[in-house]
């Protein structure tokens, strides 16, 4: 490209020009058969966009809880937060007189049923009963570099915790007592951005490419029982993983789109410390779920809550069996 004040001129090079790669920014990968081209804004045509996957693969700092509007937020400044009821704000998970003082500055959170896991530095903490009982403290495994933190967490229907430690795309498995259950060698590279368990014991992992083509998002599908992961599409993800109310996220915060008092979808936005934001302070929300989902949500919104979330959980578990197994099936 020539420099101003002359008119700028772009020249495309084919794949056989004898230049050595030094640095690649805002260009298509140099090894492509079409040569080097300017990368389109927002990524290459057909590439995955993070906002398109948010409803099924939330940011690692967010996790949907047990309840129609319950969410957990890992805030580096305020600790572990919970949101309930619908259209309410985020408050500390524990009241001041019950706060265990951990985790401090959590990096990631996962939830399923009445189980919660949070990553804090070189360890992961797992609670039962929505934070009432600490079940396990999991240290970084051998082989993880010193200072390596748990980067992404996931709780699966198989009653296991999956942890992607920083610097590896393999998934470490733990039971609900924190005991190691092996490792899923994914066979993929890059930095894990999000993970989720899906139908038929599938595991879905979103990675961000490092090195050449850095920043490109890749979606993978694997199995809880092991084996190499294979590339997947957003449509396959949507068919296997339940959609959440998360519709937008940016460096400034995130938005949850839920039925409002009149039944119509309404966005509630927050920063990453749980403080309310105007919708315009976050990236534009994706379209809400279709009419069928909207009708189901409107029907559910007329059911009044009764008692605290813990008392509701105890009534459910006392009639059907152990709390964790019951709540997992009841909450999805």
SS strand fraction: 25-35%
User: How does the overall form come out from the CA principal axes?
Assistant: globular
- According to CATH, the fold-level topology of the domain at 50-242 is Neuraminidase
Distance between the termini: 55 Å
What does this structure look like?
- This protein is α+β, with helices and mostly antiparallel strands and 332 residues long.
- The chain is 13% helix and 31% strand.
- The protein has a domain of 193 residues: Neuraminidase (6 Propeller), CATH 2.120.10.30.
- The protein has five helices and 20 strands.
- The strands form five sheets. The chain has a four-stranded antiparallel sheet, with no helix packed on it. It has a four-stranded antiparallel sheet with strand order 5-6-7-8. It has a four-stranded antiparallel sheet with strand order 9-10-11-12, with no helix packed on it.
- The radius of gyration is 22 Å and the shape is globular.
